[in-house]
Every structure is written in structure tokens, then in C-alpha cells.
Amino acid sequence: MLSKKINVPEEFVLESITLKRTNEKFSEERFKTLHENINHLSKFMPFVKASYSIEDELKHIARCSKNWDAGQVYDFSIFENETGKYIGCISIIVNKSLRLEHSFGYWLAEKSQGKGYISQAVQALTDYLQDKQEAKRVIISCHAKNLKSAKVALRNDFLFEYKAFGLDRGDDAYFFVKLLDQEKRSELLSIQDSLKSIYNINI
Length: 203
Description:
By secondary structure, this protein is α+β, with helices and mostly antiparallel strands. Helix content is 34%, strand content 29%.
């Protein structure tokens, strides 16, 4: 079934963080935080380079706005409630061919990791997509070497589904899914050990 545009709030106020629709007002904060985390982020995000300019960031934000209005990608900037600081971003990516399947992309400043912020964001957006939009499948994918991201998925009750080989730059990736159908979820849960053994992974 082909996708249709979904209605997503422009702000989610959570316990420790607030998610706000990305816009040009945040460009300087986003640019500064990105450059402060180049070494941390460039391992898994090839576009993060020292040459990345404020003009590049403004172009990126313009694309974010266009994609939001088109119902393709809903990009949120993440702010820490205690300090008001920008600390990262998370996006809902709409599957163009499957109406009820969505995935997440996200990154977080290194100093803000380990505080449960991404878990809060993932849980809130997943609940919204499944409770309000009846999303049958919500997906988290991550670089096969990015075990921190894999553990975020598992902590939020996503189940391992498969490993994809040779994506983008030749890298491999893990895919995790949260299913709305509880019978299907139970079926996938029952074969977790077998799947991990087949793909020879330890997460």
C-alpha cells in the first residue's frame, strides 16, 4: 500500500528533552554542535567533515523543511530541558512504498550520551506512530559497528530482524523492528537467538 502523508506534531515536550521541528533559527547551534562532535560523528556519518560550513547547514535545514512539508521526513532538533542546549537530532523517515512503515535516524552529542535522551525520543515517537498513526512497523537501523545505537533499539523493545550487507560505502547494518501486531511480535521474539546465531552477532 502506498504511503500517505501523516500528521506529526511540531514539538514533543518530554521528561528531560524537547523535540522541536528543525528550522533555520537553530542553524548556528546545530552547526556549532556538529563541529564540536566531528570525531565522534564522522565514524558513522560520512557527510560530517571539517569542511562542512554554515551554508551547508542552512541548505540541509531547507531540505528538512521541504521534506517535512512533503510528508517524507520529519526532522526534529533535540534540546536538553535543563540547559536549553541543542544536543542532536532525530528524524521520522516515511517508507515511500509502505504506508504503515516508518524508520528513525538520529545522532546525539557525545557529552549527552548515556543519559537516556535518545531512548526518551524513540519511545515518544514510536508511541505516537503506533497509537495515533497505527504504524505496523517502526524500524531502527544502525551501522553494524555502532553497538551503542543497537543497544538503544533493544532497550526500547525493538527486536532484531536482519543484517544488511554492503550498504552505502560498503558498510553493513543491523535492522531492528517494533511491530504493532502482538502475534507477529511474539513470533519474531521466539526466533531472536536463532537470527543472531545465523548472522553471527552478539548484541
